[in-house]
Amino acid sequence: MKNTIKIAKSRILLKELAIEDSAAYFTLIKKNRAHMNKFGTMTETQYKTVEEVAKSIVNPPNPRKLRFGVWNGTTLIGMVALIKTK
């Protein structure tokens, strides 16, 4: 299992995205496309299929960026990106 952080006294987990999260991550993007379009993020235009999401997890466009899924139990509810500095 990749890096996972459990938030104390809650069902919230931060888990580094893995290939098995592709479908859940794509569904999250799909459900929030209109919202993301308001802010001009690349995510909504960059990932149009589950396969594109899976490819980005295996070969991230920015390998210094760690992408964590925010999970409420077994439901992916968000994403957090951390960028490694030197």
Describe the structure.
The protein is of the alpha+beta class. It has three helices and four strands. It has a four-stranded antiparallel beta sheet, with helices on one face. The longest helix is centred in the middle third of the chain and has 16 residues, at 22-37.
Examine the coordinates and then state which fold CATH places here, giving the name of the CATH topology: Aminopeptidase
Radius of gyration: 13 Å
Average of pLDDT: 85
Q: Tell me the β content.
A: 25-35%
CATH architecture classification: 3-Layer(aba) Sandwich
Q: Count every beta strand, where a strand is a DSSP E run of 2 or more residues.
A: 4
Q: What is the CATH domain class?
A: Alpha Beta
What's the shape? globular
- The total count of helices amounts to 3
**What is the string of SSEs from the N terminus onward?**
EEHHHEE
Widest β-sheet, arrangement of strands: 1-2-3-4
Question: Could you name the key traits of this structure?
Answer:
86 residues, alpha+beta, Aminopeptidase, four-stranded antiparallel β-sheet, 3 helices
Question: What is the compact description of this entry?
Answer:
With 86 residues, the protein is α+β, with helices and mostly antiparallel strands.
Spell out the blueprint of helices and strands.
Layout: E1 4-6, E2 12-16, H1 22-37, H2 43-46, H3 50-58, E3 65-72, E4 75-83
Antiparallel strand pairs: 1-2, 2-3, 3-4
Helix pairs in contact: 1-3
